[in-house]
Every structure is written in structure tokens, then in C-alpha cells.
């Protein structure tokens, strides 16, 4: 990335509008930066004249505790919002990695999907309203602070996952949930012979775990005994009474699958869970690239084994996280150094996308990243997406070239 | 010309043009519009695509229609056009119980889906009161809610992917797991103005292992609504939290003998679904709050039959008001949940100022009010009073930080009222999406967007 001429961090929506309108008029291209946690996603910008930081818009606008709603500016960090909510017995289940840096706007714009969504729904379903500034400086509001609203198109949901290419989110209004009184994490080794049964048992539990992972590698990042075998990490959430029963069920389910000793973490359970989420985007600098794949829970085991085999063929070290409840796969491939990785990564990327055309890159700083299919194959509706981009940002001012299909 | 080409494409049994056949398609549950030029009953996505191509070639707009249960004129033709009825596209195409999803056609009746998957221990969560007749396609168009969306979310939370026919008759698909813009989310709730959904992949949920239903009765509405606000403020979000006032419970009891007390000013119908282990705690927490707010009585439904009767009464409430007045007009507004007492007071004041009998039956836990305004269509003075009452209620909702529709949609009814909640810039931003998907305004024209003439009042029912 070449040196940028201008960095700006507007401190009001009006100032943001002025910056965008001016750049748009002058055909200067803008890179939008939140907490820089998901900058391993997307193509690098085609052209970059102005770096727009959302850090100047980081206030809590309104917290309606008794309505279970909160309005915050896009630059507020997930941790800051989360801490305020937690102090009031509430939360939003966004499961963003590195929440101390990740911003609300960045997490939503990147369309981040966390492991608890099978239980609580997608982040987009928590967005009740928004204020966005379009490339031409138009300030547009959508939705409001009510939990049900069908007055017109649901623009806020469209902005979630739009990667800053339709406009710059300035404020989002969110629905919150009451926080569960208890969380408990289970850690166990997952020898190969127990894996298939264990995953099936986890999926079939009557009290669904909030999250369940089968992890290979990531030894320093994730809790658990180091060793050659995979590990299982399960988090339960709920009342004390419910967790008592869920613990019994989980232990006997894992026991039936032949999983050896299970260690329980009560104090620090949520932190333990967060370390797994952080690993989704943990990069080894220039010597790793991390892919993410979505799919059906009953296919993830077969798929991840195929991916590991593929990486082995390329003599790449492969580490993986399978989100058992949703069927997501995170795959980190690495080599001894940037040079060694650089010699293989493009061929690996080609081979990977032959079998998994939708695989996306989510982390990694290798210079060859620019040659990879970071969004996977474009979806069938790509032309409609281009048309949408053209209607919202005709001059291609915002995050040019970074999104799907080079939008 | 249009008729012949449609018959060429679909066969004569799938095309209706006789005025007596068209008349029924000029209505929905809100109002009557104009007669369509033709009504077609496609059997496949290909048929829909062919219809759109023919209609466009003949300069006719297209209106997709489910069961016609909409409450804001969303499915009525305003300037003629071809109505596409999905009555023949009503099948479950595939069921993947293991991965909790089903692929369905838009004409499938909402409740039929839940009934079909019940043997797999699953259900489809969105449950509008119309669910015995309304269709999944119509529910998608309006992003329909229902009592249980308090905890399960509205239709958009349960739609995973769509197959859509666009304004030129081309087919495209969207999936919420696709990279790129979330077109699925944009299409849900767009009231047929961005494309015509020809099939949908929807999310199914596991049937809960334990369900409890309670009824709390109150001596005044204020106390009941304050109790609702307090329950939510306490962080307790049951599966459903409904309120009915005395006008409604009396009509419901006369019609169904559902089991509601008739001597209370307001009752709350509360359901919690989940795990047995949590039920006692949940019950004692809610019971404590309602008692603190002066509840006259608190009772649990002990059997599945009792629960079903209470719910049947709740879902049949609007129909039961036929005993009070020949006609009723349902408003739909949503306010922040802590503002419920003020919102209900405003409804009461507006109705009594215009001498209109009002019955309240609504999703209290969501702050989503449904005042039913009773009147006699044959009396002009009453029609005028109902319109004014409805407008006053919407104004009060906006003043309280609320919105003009929580779950029924904008349709034709509320399009002028859109200017009261959104600025010109806000609406122009929405219109950019329309420009991409339907630049000629051929899909369900004259809906959602204000007509341009800035008449800010809602049109008569």
C-alpha cells in the first residue's frame, strides 16, 4: 500500500458528510478504517487518496436499558459497547474477534458471522436502525429504535456486509439480549477415532451448546492440552439449573463418543471462548493465510479433512477450526517463512477453489494475498450487486475494488 | 393481445380475464383497488418468468399475490396490471431436517409448513395471526411477524435464500451466505417491489421441550402495560407476550369460550417455551412483576388443550369483533417498549375524541400495537372518524419515537405516511434500491413510496 496523502477522522456525522462529498467531487478515493481487525478480508484498494478513520465517531448515542436497545456510533469498539451492556446485564451476540479494537461499524460492514448465531441469529438481525453517509454526502437514516419495523425497505440490513462500498455507517441502533447468568466451557482432547461421533453427539444435544468447536492446531492461541491430537471446545450458556443438566448431558455424550477426560472452565469461560474467536483471524504475519468457509453442519467434517489433505499435498502446515453447530470452517495454512509460502500459495489457492469455490480469505499479510481469490467465486447475482454499487456510489469513491467482484 | 399471449405461455386454465373472475383479486383484507387486467396462476418458476415477459411486453405492471390477507392494500392493483396468484405453487420442494431447512414454494400456507415438519420435531417460527391461510411468499413480502417473533424474530430472520424472478422475467438467486450484498435481506419486506419470489429456503427450529402459558388479568390497562414494560426491562423476554383489552376479551369469550376472564380491563397472554429446568424461575419472575403491578389474577394453563384454546382465541380475536360492529380497521404501529403505557393512552384518547370504539389486541412485548377501530362502513361519518383516529394514533406513535408499521407493511395504505417518519433523503436512498431492481416501476406499482403529492394523511379503509 503506497503512502497516503490524507488521513481524516471526522467527529460528527456532518463533518463525515462534508469529507465524503468533497472527495467524491474531487474524485479522490477513500479507504474506510475501523479497528483494523478484519483488514485481512477483501482485496486491497484499487486506489487510495484518503484514509477515513471512524475513530472520531465512537460515542454511545442512547442506551435505553429498559427497552433492551442501544444506539452507538460506528467507531465505538465492540468491547466498549459490550462492557456497558454487561454492566447492565445485557449483551449483543456479535462474537467479533479482537473486540478491544474491532468497531461496531467495521464488524457489521464486514458482515462478520460468529459461532453463536445458530442460537441467537445473525448480527444483521440485531440492527434496528442506522445512519449512513453516502458517497455524495447524503445523510440517510433507516429504521429506528423499535424492535419491529417494516416501514419501507430494510436498508440497515442491506448495509450490514456491504464492506463500506455503499456508504459509511455513522451510527447503528441495536437490539440487546439479557445476559445469561452462567457460562461454562469444556475442553477435551479429540482423538481421531472419536471425532465423527463426538460431532454428531454435540449437534444432537437437546440443550444446544452456545458454541462447539473441533480444533486442530492453534496450540498457543486456544486453551487446551498441547499435543498431536485435535481438541474440542464447547461453551454452554444459560441458567445455573439448565447448565447442571446440560453438563451431565454433554459429559455423557462426549463419553459415549469415547472422548477422554473433559476439563471444565467456569471462571474465565467467556474469555476462553473469545480466544477461539480471536484465532479465526490470528495470522502468523507474512507466513500464513487464513480461509473461511460456510456450509452445512453435516458436511464440515468431510470438507475439512479434504482441505487438510490438500494442504499436506502442498507441504503446507494446516490448522483448522470447525464450528460444529453452524458448519463453518476456518483453515490457516502456513509455511516456515514468507518466501516458502509465496512459492506455493497461489497454486494452493487455485486447487482449493476447485473444490471449494466459495472459500474466502479472512486473514494473512503475505504480499501474494492480492493474487488470491479472497472472496471466492462471485455469486450469481454479482451483476445486480454491481448495479447497486453504481447507483449508490457512481464514482467508485468508497473502498474501491475491495469488495466482491472488484466492486 | 395480452390474454392470448398469456394463454400461449401458460394454457387457458391458468389465465383469468372475465370481470367476475377478476373481482376477487381487486381486494385484500384492507381495501379494494382496481380490477386487474388479468390474473394468472403459474405452476412453476418458468411460468412466472414467462408471465413477466409477456406483461412487460404489453406494458402491464405485475402484482404478486399470496392469500390476500394483507392489511394495508399491498396486494391490490392500483393501476390495473397482471396479478400473479401463487395458489398453484404451494408445495414443499425439499426438507433437510438434519440441517434445519426447507425449500418451499411461495404459495405454501404458513401453518402447513409447521404441520408438515412437526413429525421431525421442527417448526417454522414466524406465526402471523393469519397463518392458517396466509402464504410464505406473502409473509416474505411483508416480513411478517406474529406473537412468537418476540423471541424468534420476524420472517427475515428465518429466510436463508431466495429464488426470484426480476422485472424483466429473468431468474436469479440470493443466499444470505453468499459473499456480497445481502440481497436476501433487502428483498424480504420489499412488498413485491424488487422482484417476485418463486421459491425460498427457510430456517426451521426445533420444537421446544417445554411450553408454559399464563394469563394475567388487570383492573386497568395502564397497570397491564406498565407490567409489560417492567417484564422487558427486567431482561425477561418470554416467547410471546400479548395483551388484550376488555373489548377484545369479551368478544373472544362470546365467540370462542377460550378461557379469558371477562371482568378484567386487560389481560396478558404470556408464553414461555424452552427447557423444563427454567420454567419455574421464569414463572416466578414474571408472576412477581405482574403482582407488583396489581394483577387481579394469575393463572397457568395446565393442559395442551387449554393452551391451544387461549391461542385460538388470541388469533381469532379480530374476527370475533364482528359482534361489536360490522367493520373494523386494524392499525399497526410500534413504539419503544418502555413507552407502551403512553402509546395505549394515546390510542384511548384518539378513539374517544372521535367516538370510536377501540379494541386492543397486540404484541405487547414488542411494543407493537394493533388497535382495532370498530365502525359501520355504511355510515360516512364513522368512516371519516375512523380515518382521523387512525391518523392521530400514527402521529402519537411517531411522537413517542415509534414507527408507522411494525409488521403489516406500508402497501398502499401508508405510503403517504412514509414522509412522516423519513426525510426526503431517507426515501430517496430507498428509491436507489428500487432503481436497480425495478427502474420502470413495473413491480407492484403505487406501493410503499409516497405518490409525490405530499398528502400526509392515510387513505380511508
Features of this protein?
heterodimer, A: 407 residues, alpha+beta, Uridine Diphospho-n-acetylenolpyruvylglucosamine Reductase, domain 3, Alpha-Beta Plaits, 3 domains, eight-stranded antiparallel sheet, five-stranded antiparallel sheet, 11 helices, 30% helix, globular, B: 461 residues, Uridine Diphospho-n-acetylenolpyruvylglucosamine Reductase, domain 2, Vanillyl-alcohol Oxidase, Chain A, domain 3, seven-stranded antiparallel sheet
| Radius of gyration of CA atoms of chain A, rounded to a whole number | 22 Å
Please tally the helical runs of chain B, counting DSSP H or I stretches of 4 or more residues: 16
Give the overall pLDDT of chain B as a whole number: 95
Overall 3D form of chain B: globular
Low-confidence stretches of chain A: none
Rg of chain B, nearest Å: 22 Å
Spatial order of strands in the largest sheet of chain A:
14-11-13-12-16-17-15-18
Could you name the CATH topology of the largest domain in chain A? Uridine Diphospho-n-acetylenolpyruvylglucosamine Reductase, domain 3
> What general form of chain A does the structure show?
globular
Unreliable segments of chain B (pLDDT under 50, ≥5 consecutive)?
453-461
Q: Share of helix among residues of chain A?
A: 25-40%
Structure report:
The complex is a heterodimer of chains A (407) and B (461). With 407 residues, chain A is of the alpha+beta class. Chain A folds into 3 domains: 209 residues, Uridine Diphospho-n-acetylenolpyruvylglucosamine Reductase, domain 3 (2-Layer Sandwich); 94 residues, ACT domain (Alpha-Beta Plaits, 2-Layer Sandwich), CATH 3.30.70.260; 91 residues, Alpha-Beta Plaits (2-Layer Sandwich). Helices cover 30% and strands 24% of the residues of chain A. Chain A has 11 helices and 18 strands. Chain A has an 8-stranded antiparallel β-sheet with strand order 14-11-13-12-16-17-15-18, sandwiched between helices. In chain A, a hairpin with a 4-residue loop joins strand 16 and strand 17. The longest helix of chain A is centred in the C-terminal third of the chain and has 18 residues. Chain A is globular, with a radius of gyration of 22 Å. With 461 residues, chain B is an alpha+beta fold. Chain B folds into 3 domains: 84 residues, 2-Layer Sandwich (Uridine Diphospho-n-acetylenolpyruvylglucosamine Reductase, domain 2); 115 residues, Uridine Diphospho-n-acetylenolpyruvylglucosamine Reductase, domain 3, CATH 3.30.465; 190 residues, FAD-linked oxidases, C-terminal domain (Vanillyl-alcohol Oxidase, Chain A, domain 3, 3-Layer(aba) Sandwich). Chain B is 34% helix and 20% strand. Chain B contains 16 helices and 20 strands. In chain B, the strands form 5 sheets. Chain B has a 7-stranded antiparallel β-sheet with strand order 15-12-14-13-18-20-16, sandwiched between helices. The C terminus of chain B is likely disordered. The chains are: A alpha+beta (407), B alpha+beta (461). At the A-B interface, strand 8, helix 5, strand 10, helix 7 and helix 11 of A face strand 9, helix 7, helix 8, helix 10 and helix 16 of B.
